[in-house]
Amino acid sequence: MRHYVRLQVSSLVTLCLCLVLTSALLTSLLTMRFSAPLERMARGMLLPIKGEVTSSGSRHDARVESLYVEPHFSGEFRKIMTSQPRTAGQEGNRSVLIRHPKKNDLDPQPVKPRKRFPHAGNVTDEDQILSRAPKCILMGFAKCGTSALLEFLDLHPKIISLDWEPDYFCDRMYQKYDLKWYVKRMPPSLPDQITIEKSPCYIVEHDAHHRIHAFNSSLKVLVLVRDPVTRLMSEHAHYASCQRYWGKTTQSFENRFYNNFTGQFKTEMILKVGDYTPHFQHLLQVFPRDQILIVDGDKLITNPLSQLSRIETFLGLQHEISREDLYFDREKGFYCMHLRQTGERRCMGKSKGRQHEQVNDQFKKKLANFLKPYKEKFFELVGDKFNWM
Ligand SMILES: Nc1ncnc2c1ncn2[C@@H]1O[C@H](COP(=O)(O)OS(=O)(=O)O)[C@@H](OP(=O)(O)O)[C@H]1O
């Protein structure tokens, strides 16, 4: 009897081994089919792909124009597209969906009549008012003053800014919509005006860098940075206000970012956006340095004109935004706009310039010390120092 049981067990083990070996063989055959040529052909190159490849996760099936294989790509070519958002630190071992403009993809598009055109007074030929592809993009960082910057830039007669965040080049949107869809979403403009849009997800989703470059390799890129401590406080104020909106209790700033039990900062939460270096480093691999302008978000608060003037020069525009266009609003505690055309005064909405939680100075200093090596690395990378804590 014992001999019979032993026989049964050993044949079961043999069967399992056979199954494992067969599946390993099949996997390696499939992997060879995809990864070997890809790896051999192109590390860090755009690969033209023939034919239609569809994604099961997206609403509309998309055509894959090319695949970018990260320089450190190794292993199998698992998915052509994924609906998971990818951020810094998740690179490698994957491919990226990239759309290249073809034929009339980027042509100006007719505007829906209900859309407001802010510079209508100067227009002689109505047919010239069209939605045009942006020539400049503000890529982030979130909570550094991106909305205020775009609204201030809109004061320039040659700049037309989009007043919402399309997030187009980020996974969430890019897999669903084509380039024509994107251009159609842009605000009405005239041929000699520069359309600008901002979406803070672009800087932290590195795939967006490649997609934006494929969309327009001569595009001008703005990146807004701010003292990472105040940026984090702003992010926390945003979180707290959302939680309150849903009637949920909120964690304090300290508890959210510091683990009292281990005596350690919650590194990933703080550095995800707050360490600017990996994001900027990746951007530099894609865009030439002279197409990128780093804007100082702290100066944007204290002396907005200093930053607006740098941007005007960067975009090759005349210096049109002046002291008369901006004023410091005591009640708001921030600079607001004085609209020349209507004489109206306008500040940013309630969600911009929120009250921050009172955080004791000692904790702020501790956080600043924790961030110090990351800040220094960033200063070294950009060859500039900012007046941060
Ligand atoms: N002029 C002016 N008016 C109001 N707010 C101003 C201005 N300039 C810069 N800021 C700062 O912008 C912070 C919000 O940043 P963002 O617009 O980038 O936030 S978001 O990522 O789009 O949610 C916002 O953060 P909070 O103070 O935490 O609300 C402001 O500090």
From TrEMBL:
Keyword Glycoprotein: yes
Disulfide bonds: C336-C347
Domain Sulfotransferase positions: 134-366
Key words, A-Z: Disulfide bond, Glycoprotein, Transferase
Region annotated Disordered, chain positions: 101-120
Active site, per annotation: K143
Binding site for 3'-phosphoadenylyl sulfate: R226, S234, Y335, K352, G353, R354, Q355, H356
SUPFAM superfamilies per the UniProt record, alphabetical: P-loop containing nucleoside triphosphate hydrolases
Keyword Membrane: no
Molecular function per GO: [heparan sulfate]-glucosamine 3-sulfotransferase activity
Pfam family, one: Sulfotransfer_1
Top-level taxon of origin: Eukaryota
Protein name: Heparan sulfate glucosamine 3-o-sulfotransferase 5-like
Biological source species: Plakobranchus ocellatus
